[in-house]
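F.,

This is the one I mentioned.
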């Protein structure tokens, strides 16, 4: 019976770990989910805390899942799991009743669930929690070597979070991931329509200008968060991009001025979905997303030239292979540390 209960706790832990990790690698996306919840609950005054709370919740879920998988601090993990599942279930019932146009955000951009599917998932997890944790006084103890391995994995999660905060999500599950196109074909032998629309200061649609040739599109969704030095850095990047054969443009929620770069306007959600970094850049080849960079890691001239010479299709393969190997190796190391 004890083995069965540990197995159920392990499965719950995997769900929490996946849920937390997919949001941990995309803290900006997690903050957007929390922001939507605050707006749905008519708590706009809490929106400024969305980034902090979204990141904190993602880390808490990941750590809780890690603890359940490894079987450490079992009493605390059991109480925390049942508490948070009760909270999530109440929220999901309210979502089913009110049925707002929003995603539950359970697994970030990785998996999208309807409100009904979210409620069913939470009810199942509540039932599994009852099987795994009652009676709570008889949960057993983890082997001592599990605890240092738990903290080692915790450090790994913190490193992933830190990287995600200063850069872009290492694994992009959005509709604007690398290799996707910004053009949706209506039907054969007809022109496509832009999935990402921009307009000039007069409101005229200018989406076609970024769908042809090689484009370096700078995304600014919060101009007030950038100072004069930041704009100078973006101007230098735009100049480098132009010298290497890209046409630099800026898309922003409000008009901004960068010398020698034409600025277009777009909506906040589209801009932050295209590039999670405020001031980040997206390289396009005939509408296809060739690569992205965060503001903290803007491409150097050599990198721009290399990507342009390699071409989008070859660059897709190179990047996807590299990341697949890193992901598989990191997953293997994690599994070994979790089960030994």
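My design for it:
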């Amino acid at each position: 019976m004890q083995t069965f209960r540990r197995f159920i706790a392990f499965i719950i832990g995997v769900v929490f770990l996946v849920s937390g990790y997919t949001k941990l690698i995309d803290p900006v996306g997690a903050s957007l989910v929390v922001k939507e919840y605050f707006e749905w609950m008519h708590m706009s005054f809490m929106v400024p805390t969305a980034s902090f709370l979204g990141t904190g919740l993602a880390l808490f879920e990941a750590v809780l899942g890690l603890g359940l998988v490894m079987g450490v601090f079992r009493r605390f993990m059991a109480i925390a799991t049942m508490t948070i599942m009760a909270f999530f279930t109440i929220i999901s019932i309210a979502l089913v009743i009110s049925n707002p146009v929003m995603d539950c955000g359970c697994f970030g951009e990785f998996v999208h669930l309807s409100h009904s599917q979210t409620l069913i998932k939470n009810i199942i997890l509540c039932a599994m929690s009852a099987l795994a944790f009652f009676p709570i006084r008889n949960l057993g103890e983890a082997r001592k070597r599990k605890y240092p391995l738990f903290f080692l994995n915790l450090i790994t999660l913190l490193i992933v979070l830190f990287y995600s905060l200063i850069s872009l999500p290492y694994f992009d599950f959005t509709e604007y991931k690398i290799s996707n196109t910004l053009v949706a074909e209506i039907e054969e032998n007809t022109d496509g329509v832009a999935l990402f629309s921009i307009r000039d200061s007069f409101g005229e649609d200018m989406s076609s200008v970024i769908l042809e040739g090689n484009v370096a599109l700078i995304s600014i969704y919060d101009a007030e968060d950038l100072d004069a030095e930041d704009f100078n850095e973006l101007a230098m990047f735009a100049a480098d991009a132009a010298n290497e054969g890209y046409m630099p443009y800026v898309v922003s929620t409000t008009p901004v001025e960068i010398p020698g770069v034409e600025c277009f306007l777009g909506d906040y959600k589209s801009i932050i979905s295209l590039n999670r970094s405020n001031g980040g850049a997206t390289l396009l080849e005939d509408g296809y997303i060739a690569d992205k960079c965060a503001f903290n890691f803007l491409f150097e001239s050599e990198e721009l030239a290399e990507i342009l010479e390699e071409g989008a299709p070859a660059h897709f393969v190179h990047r996807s292979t590299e990341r697949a190997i890193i992901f598989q190796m990191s997953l293997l190391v994690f599994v070994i540390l979790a089960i030994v």
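Strands lie at 183-185, 192-194, 214-220, 247-252, 262-265, 281-285, 288-293.

Talk soon.
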